[in-house]
Amino acid sequence: MAAYRLTFLLSGLCMGAWAPLVPYARSRAGVDDGALGLLLLCLGLGSLVMMPLAGILNARKGCRFTMHVGIALVLLTLPMLATTHSFAGLMFALTVFGAGCGSVDVTMNVQGVMVERATGRSLMSGFHGLFSLGTIVSAAGMTALLWLGATPLLASSVVLTALVAFVLTAGRHMLGRSGDEGSPIFVRPTRKVLLLGVLCLFAFLAEGAILDWSAVFLSEVRGVQHSIAGLGYAAFAVMMALGRLSGDRILLKLGSRTVLIGGGLIVMLGFLMVVLATDWLWNLVGFAVIGAGLANIAPVYLSLAGAQRTMPGELAIAAATSLGYLGILMGPAVIGLFAHATNLSAALLAVASLMIAVMVSATRLVPKVSRQRVH
Q: Are 105 and 325 in contact (CB under 8 A)?
């Protein structure tokens, strides 16, 4: 079980490592919001290409092989993201880095479903809590090292060391093939699963906005030093981790509908605090509020995808997850282009408005008295 939990923790380390590096990469390349958005689009495109390939690799080669492929891509490109000055070099590095993160993200969720089914226990919410914990350790740890004077390369080397240690130890005990012999590799998603995937995309887009733009917002809009600008994402990730680690109890007490509606309202409140409060310390509080509201929205949608009967649950979860992660990987690029046309504050408010769809759809997707089994 330790290997399965570490899979989610290490996935969080990969994702969180990029957030503190964004202001440094932007300064080295000398790019504006629009150009940074194009760079982030490369991150999403790399993941978009790799996610379906990761599904095939999981079915044919197993989770262990696919996870190691994803980690190898991260190991290759994270040092480049910490040192490259050219725009073209960053485009290449972010594309391959996105492919690695996409492979890791799909694989951790596929293995999470496999472990749940093997044990007969609801574990996914806690697994995702460990993913959030990994982003905290990575973002906060690298931010602390940068604040103490470490170079971006030295700070990122700590994450690289942890990834190598995982591959050489617990990574060898991951599960093998994710499917039975003769099982279909792909099934066309149904309308309901596609809707759940789009709603996951909205939730993950808000998460991606914080991942890629919180440090930029604090440094460029509020004038915070680059070395501590990663605190915004760290505050967000702390509250998201706490919310997910307690997600099973919250859903049992309040129900899925209340979590979706209440979470959407809390997320919108957090974005308003970030945009309207001029003191950067209050901005940190706003980022934390966003994390609390977002924490269990995506897990509810994944639970609904697994519970529907219009297509196999495991394939439905994989489809919803793949579509949802496009939000966290491609959404920030769209935010950059929107910010270039208007400003970053307006772009963040546009992201907050997506929570209206989350709240409105909750009444149709979730029965009023539902107490969903949480994934």
A: yes
**Can you give the pLDDT at residue 374?**
41
Q: Which of 238-242, 267-271, 333-337 has the largest mean confidence?
A: 267-271
Segment 313-316 long-range contacts (CB within 8 Å, at least 24 positions apart): 313/113, 314/110, 314/113, 314/114, 314/117, 314/178, 315/184, 315/186, 315/187, 316/189, 316/190, 316/193, 316/196
Question: To 10 degrees, the CA torsion angle through 79, 83, 88, 90?
Answer: 50
Q: What is the dihedral of CA 113, 65, 205, 371, to 10 degrees?
A: 10
Q: Mark out the alpha helices in 255-354 (DSSP H runs).
A: 256-276, 280-294, 297-307, 313-341, 344-353
Q: Would you say 275 and 345 are in contact if contact means Cβ atoms under 8 Å apart?
A: yes
Residue 32 gets which letter from DSSP?
-
What are the Cα distances from residue 271, in Å, to 66, 264, 293? 36, 11, 11
- Which residue from 294, 360, 351, 359 is spatially nearest to 128, judged by alpha carbons? 294
d(CA 195, CA 145): 42
| Least confident stretch, 74-88, 117-131, 216-230, 245-259 | 117-131
In the prediction, which pLDDT does 217 show? Answer: 92
Q: Do residues 99 and 75 touch, judged by C-beta distance below 8 A?
A: no
Cβ proximity of 226 and 22 under 8 Å = no
pTM: 0.71
> Distance between CA atoms of 6 and 131, rounded to whole angstroms?
9
Domains, the chain, in order of start with CATH, read 2-176+189-365 (1.20.1250.20)
Rounded Cα distance, 161 and 151, in Å: 16
- pLDDT, tens only, 119-178: 776 677 778 788 878 878 888 888 889 988 899 999 999 888 988 887 777 666 665 555
Q: Token pair of 30, please?
A: 């000398």
Model confidence band, residue 371 (pLDDT cutoffs 50, 70, 90):
very low
Whole-number Å distance between alpha carbons of 178 and 64 = 10
The tokens of 195 are what?
A: 């809707």
**d(Cα 370, Cα 327) in Å, to the nearest integer?**
27
From the list 339, 337, 341, 359, the residue with the least C-alpha distance to 269 is 359
* Contact of 29 with 80, CB cutoff 8 Å: no
174 token code pair: 């991951």
